[in-house]
């Protein structure tokens, strides 16, 4: 049974800011917001892929998203991207902190520099993006910040301790921000994906053992796809979820 996308009138014309939008889950999120006629800005390191995504969406007759090449470890570049987005698309009223990297590593191989790099790649930019969009959301009377955590820390997964640590911290950060920004009607929630079948995941890890794990650990038999996460994000960005904040929305087909 193929899922059908809902229509969210409150997203039409809404400025939306998405990190890591050139591939995988982020690419699907960009496409889904564009299909809602939102005013989308997305960031990514992959310049060619980002431009291709924007071109493909515009070719479908949808509003062309603004793509800004950006290394999110560079906080000045992130702040400048938020400012450019506000000047051209309108101040973001929804922030989707999607970007991250789950490269595998052993405990014994982690150096202080690598640890710092993983925190900058997976955690730090989520907070500073939220900090950057907050003033305009407050002025507008509210907004939605959607952070991306992971079932990796819920499940206690091995072989990427820095990533697992960062994703656990995101869950705590979500709770704290929701409490602090709530009086401004800024909602802060975390989406918690399971094993999503992006091309990267398929290429690197979907072997016979991976297929076995899906059958054994998911409650549902179908593979989890990027669009399944994008649909949850749409709902959290729309006014339909106006009284939902400080929550974790797990989309994992029942893995945990």
What would you note in describing this structure?
With 256 residues, this protein is an alpha/beta fold. The chain has one domain: 3-Layer(aba) Sandwich (Rossmann fold), CATH 3.40.50.720. The chain has 9 helices and 7 strands; from the N terminus they run βαβαβαβαβααβαααβ. The chain has helices at residues 24-35, 47-59, 75-89, 112-140, 151-155, 161-181, 199-205, 208-217, 226-237; strands at 15-19, 39-44, 66-69, 94-97, 143-148, 186-193, 248-251. Strands 3-2-1-4-5-6-7 form a 7-stranded parallel β-sheet, sandwiched between helices. Helix 4 (112-140) links the parallel strand 4 (94-97) and strand 5. Helix 3 runs parallel beside helix 4. The mean pLDDT is 96. Belongs to the short-chain dehydrogenases/reductases (SDR) family. Keywords: Oxidoreductase. GO terms for molecular function: oxidoreductase activity.
Any key phrases for this structure?
256 residues, alpha/beta, Rossmann fold, seven-stranded parallel sheet, 7 strands
Query: By CATH's scheme, which homologous superfamily applies?
Result: NAD(P)-binding Rossmann-like Domain
The N- and C-terminal alpha carbons lie at a distance of: 23 Å
| Order of helix and strand elements from N to C terminus | EHEHEHEHEHHEHHHE
Q: What spatial form do the alpha-carbon principal axes imply?
A: globular
Q: Compute the number of helices.
A: 9
Oligomer state equals single chain
The domain count comes to 1
Give the tally of β-strands.
7
Largest pleated sheet: 7 strands, parallel
CATH 2nd-level architecture:
3-Layer(aba) Sandwich
Question: Residue-averaged pLDDT, rounded?
Answer: 96
User: Which structural class should the secondary elements be placed in?
Assistant: alpha/beta
Poorly predicted regions are: none
Protein name: SDR family oxidoreductase
Pfam family, one: adh_short_C2
GO molecular function: oxidoreductase activity
Keywords: Oxidoreductase
């Amino acid at each position: 049974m193929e899922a059908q996308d809902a229509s969210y009138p409150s997203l039409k014309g809404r400025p939306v800011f998405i990190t890591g939008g050139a591939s995988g889950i982020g690419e699907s999120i960009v496409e889904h917001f564009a299909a809602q006629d939102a005013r989308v800005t997305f960031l990514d390191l992959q310049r060619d892929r980002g431009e291709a995504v924007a071109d493909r969406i515009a070719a479908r007759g949808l509003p062309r998203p603004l793509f800004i090449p950006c290394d999110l470890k560079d906080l000045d570049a992130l702040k400048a991207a938020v400012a450019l987005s506000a000047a051209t698309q309108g101040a973001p009223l929804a922030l989707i902190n999607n970007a991250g990297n789950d490269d595998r590593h052993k405990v014994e191989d982690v150096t202080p520099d690598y640890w710092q790099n993983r925190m900058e790649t997976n955690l730090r930019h989520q907070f500073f993006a939220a900090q950057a969009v907050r003033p305009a959301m407050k002025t507008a009377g509210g907004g939605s910040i959607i952070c991306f955590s992971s079932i990796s820390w819920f499940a206690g997964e091995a072989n990427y301790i820095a990533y697992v640590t960062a994703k656990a911290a995101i869950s705590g950060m979500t709770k704290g921000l929701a409490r602090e920004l709530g009086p401004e009607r800024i909602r802060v929630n975390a989406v918690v994906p399971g094993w999503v079948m992006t091309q990267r995941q398929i290429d690197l890890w979907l072997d016979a053992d991976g297929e076995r794990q899906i059958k054994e650990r998911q409650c549902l038999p179908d593979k989890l796809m990027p669009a399944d996460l994008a649909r949850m994000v749409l709902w959290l960005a729309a006014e339909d979820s106006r009284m939902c904040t400080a929550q974790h929305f797990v989309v994992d087909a029942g893995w945990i």
